[in-house]
Amino acid sequence: MPDDPEAYGLAGWTEEDKAVLLYDRYDIWSFSPDGKSSAKNVTNGFGRQNGITFRYQATDTAARFISKKEDVWLSAFNNNTKENGFYRSNLGETKNPQLVVMAPFKYSILVKAKDAERYIYDKGNYTASPNVYVSTDLKTETKLSNTNPQQQNYNWGTAELVKWTTPKGFKSEGILYKPENFDPNKKYPMIVYFYEKLSDGLYTYNAPAPTPSRLNIPFFVSNGYLVFAPDISYQTGHPGQSAMEYINSGVESLKKNNWVDGSKIGIQGQSWGGYQVAYLITQTNMYAAAWAGAPVANMTSAYGGIRWESGMNRQFQYEKTQSRIGATLWEKPELYIENSPLFSLPKVSTPVVIMANDADGAVPWYQGVEMFTGLKRLGKPAWLLNYNNEAHNLMLRQNRKDIQIREQQFFDYYLKGAKAPVWMTSGVPATEKGKTWGFELTDEKP
Question: How many domains does one find in the chain?
Fold first, then answer.
């Protein structure tokens, strides 16, 4: 982002405030508040050398300071493999932390018994629902729960890390989710879901539930889709082109596999992801269907809008943060136009659903209206969903269920050849909204 980087935070203070322990991306440093002694890397640079992020685990909630006399627990995240685990270290010394456990799971924090060296925690991954364990050393553990046993009755899935090189030579990675009954001799439709960087969540468990608006990954995987979540890095001033650089090249790398049906690929994104969906379909025809939730279509009009939930003017995010233009509208008007999908709508041929809610507190909902009316004026295949009095991300469960059904019907039609629902072929008149849902399938074409 075109802004100063944020701090990584602090672990805490040692006894009598003699030192404050601060984090960098990987390691832990000891700083003297009086400045009389130099800073020390108390994890000895081991984190940076090995791509591991260490963070202090406060197992004694009553302790007022971090002991420099005894070993403490450090959580550990391997940035290369995405595995998680724990190390032991004495933060009063400068030496390498000692490995206790590193595994393809995601762990909770450790909770220690008051008067014994016993710890309780949960761990899980995409395949294994998180369960509760107890252990004295985190090497030998006893499982105390059996969550979601009904999962065994369903076609679940797997998650794997994939890597590729973009056309400009940048290294990137992402997560590929496959159905549990995956057959490499078959061809599968694929949905690409993105935001910014998602690969660190490789070992996160995803329960299949109606979501606020992001893709319900386990649901689609269970129903025979591949789902790909690519990481994206950005060049200041060119967020749209950056999304193309990483997303499209990641998709092209996967299309080299015979089991990916390159003619049946959809894209889905919400908010910043929705913007990127809107931009992509103005630049390429490689996607068979697109779903954009709360997208910004016109940066020139969105720039001066208000984030109604916070009351903040939206200019900051274009100049300094997520939208990544790095200049005011008047300093670089050409960048605002370049990155606005609205000005390239004539090039769109991909069918797209747009969600824009009239109580959105982050993105002005008329951005979705601008995109929809522009596409319809140009005779392009587009649908607009407006959930009245709903937020940026859907809050009411009935609406979450509604969008889940529509999303499945939309992608099933374009990526699986299923019948189209009435809401896609005929729409739902405003006078029938809330009374007629349009879920019925028909032999008509949209």
Answer: 2
